[in-house]
Amino acid sequence: MGKINLPGIYVHVPFCKTKCPYCDFYSITDGSLVVSWLDGVQQEASLYSDEWPEPFDTLYIGGGTPSLLGERGLERLMGILQDGFSFALDAEVTIEANPEDVTPSLLACFKALGINRLSVGVQSLQEKELRFLQRRHTAAGAQKALELIQSTGFHNFGVDLMYGFRGQTMKSWSDTLDGALVWEPAHLSCYQFTLSGETPFGRMVSDGTLHRITEGQERRFFTHTSHFLRDRGFIHYEISNFAKEEGYFARHNMKYWQRAPYLGLGPAAHSFRDNVRWWNLRSVRDYCRLLREGRRPVEGQEELSSEDVRLEKLMLGFRTGDGVDIDDIVGQAAGIEALTRLASSGIVRIEGKRVLPTLDGYLIADRLPMIFFL
Amino acid sequence: MKHIRNFSIIAHIDHGKSTLADRLIQYTNLVDDRQFRDQILDTMDIERERGITIKSQTIDLPYTDNDGREFELNLIDTPGHVDFSYEVSRALASCEGVLLLVDASQGVEAQTLANLYAAMEHDLVIIPVINKIDLPVADVERVKLEIDHELGLDPDSAILCSAKEGTGIEDIFGAIIDRIPPPAGDPEKPLSALIFDAHYDPFRGTIVSCRVFDGTVRPGDMIRLMSNGMTYKVEEAGIFHLTREPGKELTAGMVGYIIAGIKTVSDTRIGDTITLDSDPAPTPLPGFKEVKPVVFSSIYPIASDDYQSLLEALEKYKLNDASLIYQKDSSAALGQGFRCGFLGLLHLEIVQERLEREFDQSIIMTAPSVQYRFILANGDVVTVDNPLYYPDPAKIKSSEEPFIKANILVPERYVGVVMKLCMERRGINSHLNYPTPGRVEVTFNMPLAEIIFDFYDKLKSITQGYGSFDYEITDYRESDLARLDILVNGEKVDALSILVHKERARDRAVTICERLKEEIPRQQFKIAIQGAIGGKIIARSTVSAFRKDVTAKCYGGDITRKRKLLEKQKKGKRRMRMVGNVEIPQSAFMAALKTDNE
What is the pLDDT of residues A313-339, one digit of tens each? Predict the structure, then answer.
């Protein structure tokens, strides 16, 4: 895993046909605002283009549902970005797409616009589960989209899947994984089903109408997923991410974990550079209004103290197979002592100057940084 | 001297002592309304927050009556809690009279009685004052009846007032002047002045509060403290208005202060007599005694490198609180710390809170213990207040623990639950007394150890706040004791050991194990908690390991949100202590000792 110093761009496309009840990313279903949003992104790009002159080596178009932009919308978006910023020749350019939007002409458009990586929101290949998750596609539809992508010669594509909700079994989950692997994706993101408070599912949990699976079940799903995919040659390089080989690691997402700089465009997008983090307003209208007035649509920002930086390094590092620099641990209060304990109980491995989480370590990655602060 | 009156206000907690003091001060126009704030005599944050008085304060109130006569009324405000009863007794010794404050809705309470007895011991004039008559639930007639039956005072002599509304204040001033005699004493006799309190001032050293009985003291005089013979040169003497007012002299009958280059408060003893080195009084004033701590607990810094800082904090704290004693202590589990002695549980809590708030220390306190006596086979008697020094059980011939006489006043309907509580706490020789219809005075002999934890809280809750409680230590009695050890993952946590009565050992062990199970957060491995006496395990519980703790996503680039979550946890971690390989939160050390699982 090489060091990634060049910055990346994230564009948040905040539009969806329908809202999925588990998702807490910002999006709206009012497609009439797409043009204003594009105007906003254009304005925002012009505000930042001078400050970010260095070439970007990743671009990630996420959402929301970016595939909803259609060919014309995407053409304009790519034009805006190419006018405003410079990109490395081998830049990774990713777009998220929903299976129901994937058509031969859209794929051709992606290629023509230089988009070289696809992340497909499949979630499940079981009809019952897709209905529970309120997705708009069917299992057959998803299979068809994946087939189309593969046959179009998109080698670098990833499939997003979800596991660990009520009604799913280890068997149905394995079937979904198998079903996705048929199309030889280079990358798999397997997200543990998360119930956050401000979503419809989250509220159902508070009401008692939806139940979580037990911690033991969560653990079994997690370890099963890891073993299943590693047995089939994948590298478990981050908590929720698997790649066929190192070259297929999601280069853009790696920037988040490795604390490389990134510029976020669009409502609710987050940015980071030189130990400053800032984030945009979570409203398309406010975002557009501020930009029309020539102002930055920033809702908040924070400058990281050295303490914050230390915490982030551990917090993010333990999420990846690359782990944490041993010097960042030894400096902590409970450093060496805790490290010895964790290593001897098989939660981390020490390799040269890196402290790497094992599968048991991944399982408690949120807890690991805390163990060093005492 | 006939224009001086020295008086104090005594009351059960919450009966309105500080409010009445506020009103008296306001009446004399000593402060203008702009400067005034409630509880004006309580200067410490903790006093104002808890609504209690910890240190005595004195204020000289200038008062002119309707005939134009000018008076100096010295109000000596005393602490209102049983932990500080010796301080109270010395303050009372400095007065000729007291206002005995009774809440018009609550009536006479246990501390009202205890305070009354204390005042009677000093032959003080007692002026009953019925406060809070403005309350809708005020029942003046019933309270008058109680004053008659329970206190044996003339109910018609009681003054009605509402300190909150400011009614009856003039009557109180009238009574102070008419009923309380002016101080006696001879300014020409050798000096004898009673120390009833001492404060520390970072610029001036110790400010000694005293009442002069005979003689005169002036700046420049060499004074001598009669208990230890130490001599000091008086730099300043004066009286208290809201601030210190230096004067030319303090003379017989007066209440005031002396500054004499006394470095720390601990160099003075409350109750000691000040005399002149050149012309000493033949005998000290009566009633002096060394205050002895009754409750002991160890204090450890949460981070062991903070030991030095804790030591400095204790040294500073001690400057102003001579009744706290401490010495070095060390525990295998918690490292270097201090064994401390306190006057009681409230005193312990105050010290803990002030160390944390005013001195910014993060500390762990171990379970409070009383002082036990062990008579060994070879005839030696050892006193142990720290479970670490529990003698080899094979060598113990017999053991003893301190007993108290508990005095509880409750409405009749609560007698049953109070009796039950006292029996559970090994109470014996119960005695019931019916001072007035509907009310019962319950007395019990009980081990001190049984009340030092949550007895008072428990009493308050089972009597819905109507029970009041007071106690005095009486004697040592034979008792079958053992040391209960707590093991976490097989490792003994010495700081959690307690000395217990054998009959109570199993219950305590089970409760502690359950409590710890709740307090110790799950960790990445299973944690076994065991209670043991000798090598024998008598209780156990288990904290299961967490199986999984990781969120699927990092929310796109929103690292901030995730980090904030961790920062919250990290704050919690500051209050944890590593014992072996287990993180034990500070709260566990105290919570483990609460007896109920409520």
Answer: 999 999 999 999 998 887 766 678 788
Q: Which of A222, A240, A257 is the last residue before a domain boundary?
A: A257
> Based on the domain organization, do A26 and A147 belong to the same domain?
yes
Domains of chain B by range and CATH? 4-179 (3.40.50.300), 192-276 (2.40.30.10), 295-365 (3.30.70.870), 372-479 (3.30.70.240), 482-591 (3.30.70.2570)
Amino acid in position A61: I
Strand segments, DSSP code E, in B343-417 are 363-365, 372-376, 381-384, 396-411
In a domain, A262, yes or no: no
B436 has pLDDT over 80: no
Cα–Cα distance for residue pair B19/B32, rounded to 1 Å: 16
Q: Which of A261-265, A325-329, B436-440 has the lowest mean pLDDT?
A: B436-440
Instruction: Tell me if A266 is assigned to some domain.
Output: no
Chain B residues in contact with A369 (beta carbon < 8 A)? 566
Picking from A256, A333, A371, the nearest residue to B559 by CB comes out as A256
CATH of the domain at A355: 1.10.10.920
Under the banding of pLDDT at 50, 70 and 90, the label for residue A2 is: very low
**One-character DSSP codes across A99-146:** GGG--HHHHHHHHHTT--EEEEEEE-S-HHHHHHTT-SS-HHHHHHHH
Judged by CB atoms within 8 Å, which residues 517-556 of B form the interface with A? 524-525, 546-556
Domain that holds residue A209: 8-257
Quick check: B547 and A374 CB within 8 A? no
Task: Answer yes or no: do B550 and A10 touch at CB < 8 A.
Answer: no
- For residue B59, the cross-strand partners are B75
CB contact under 8 A, B556 and A25: yes
Total domains in the fold of chain A: 2
User: Between B207 and A335, where is the model more confident?
Assistant: B207
Q: Do B546 and A367 touch (CB under 8 A)?
A: yes
Query: Of B492, B491, B548, B581, which Cα lies nearest the Cα of A341?
Result: B581
For the segment B347-382, what is each residue's pLDDT rounded down to a tens digit? 888 898 889 888 889 888 888 899 999 999 999 999
Using a CB-CB distance cutoff of 8 angstroms, which residues of chain A are in contact with residue B570? Answer: 311, 370, 373
By CB atoms closer than 10 A (0-12, 13-18, 19+), residue B363 is: buried
Nearest to A366 among B303, B549, B583 (CB): B549
pLDDT for res B569: 78
Q: Is the pLDDT of residue B8 over 80?
A: yes
